[in-house]
Amino acid sequence: MQLLVRFCETDLMGIVHHASYLTYFEAGRVDWLHRRGVSYDDFVKAGIHLPVVEARVRYRKAARFDEQLVVETTCHEIKRATLRFTYRILRDSDLICEGETLLATVSHELGLRRLPDALREVFMRPETPR
Predict the structure, then answer these.
(1) What does the similarity note say (predicted)?
(2) Residue 60 carries which DSSP code?
(3) Is 120 a domain residue?
(4) What is the pLDDT of residues 36-45, one digit of tens each?
């Protein structure tokens, strides 16, 4: 997915603030789901929430206000009650940042819950054009 760096995502030096990359990762995950015909709301309606329980970010190069970036998102691993996504953020062919997040599948009461087969199938679907 493509995104344009907004001024509010930068620091005093005009460089993307380190915390903004986690927001970019989330945007990538949401887009990844949409490209498979579902949204986070579909999970909530099924009684599943997907909180991030672990995050890793590796910064390679600086990105700045008004630059066009591409977020590449992959669902790397599906386990009984966790999902691991990996990310690459690029500016043209330059790798700006890479990372991963681990999401847990939990109930409304925040107890760990097995990912139902019907929702697990979503993560096996091919991408559809938007």
Answers:
(1) Belongs to the 4-hydroxybenzoyl-CoA thioesterase family.
(2) -
(3) yes
(4) 988 999 889 9
Scanning the structure block, which residue is given the tokens 């697990």? Answer: 120
Q: In terms of DSSP bridges, do strands 2-4 and 82-91 run parallel, antiparallel, or are they unpaired? A: unpaired
What is the per-residue pLDDT across 69-106, written as a single tens digit (0 to 9) for each?
A: 999 999 999 999 999 999 999 999 999 999 999 999 99
CA 85 remoteness from chain centre: 7
Distance, CA of 6 to CA of 74 (rounded, Å) = 24
Give the total number of structural domains in the chain: 1
The span from the CA of 5 to the CA of 74, in Å, is 21
The owner of tokens 């329980």 is: 53
| Residue 98 counted as domain residue | yes
Contact 75, 30 (CB under 8 A): no
The CATH number for 47's domain is 3.10.129.10
Q: Is residue 129 part of a domain?
A: no
Nearest to 86 by CA among 48, 29, 130: 29
Considering the domain boundaries, does residue 130 fall inside one?
A: no
Domain containing 24: what range?
2-124
Beta bridge partners of 112: 106
Tokens of 10: 């930068």
